[in-house]
Amino acid sequence: MQPPFPLAGLSILVVEDDDDSRFFITTVLEADGATVVAVPSAVAALKVLPELQPDVLVSDISMPGEDGYSLIRKIRALKPDVGGRVLAIALTAHGDRESCVRALESGFQTHVSKPVDPKDLVEIVANLVACCNW
User: Fold this and answer.
1) Where would I find the H helices in 38-88?
2) Which domains does the chain show, CATH number per domain?
3) Nearest Cα to Cα of residue 30 among 45, 14, 52
4) Strand 56-60 relative to strand 35-39: parallel, antiparallel, unpaired?
5) Which of 74, 83, 94, 127 has the highest CB neighbour count under 10 A?
6) Sequence-distant (≥ 6) Cβ neighbours of residue 95 within 8 angstroms
């Protein structure tokens, strides 16, 4: 049986340029116990990451300006003590194999196609933390 708040105690940074999507993802994750900071861009994410030190990053891939691939490459270049090893989930409207491979090669641990079911999102985050917390 799943605990009532499977994400309790987790800090999650959500990077999503679409206001409605950012609100939806934040609401879903907070409803299951996570503490969420949501920002609209890669630039904003890089500003808050060192201080926030989230357990998980959930990032859209297709964003204006700097995309999610560029963001995760910059994050992976950081030292671990400033967020360089944060667990990361790529969110994208592209569910094809090429997009998945590119996300993994860029530094994400997993790739999720939008729209994502709320229960699936919570399960993906919880499973990622349970099995891959490095």
Assistant:
1) 42-52, 68-76
2) 11-132 (3.40.50.2300)
3) 14
4) unpaired
5) 83
6) 113
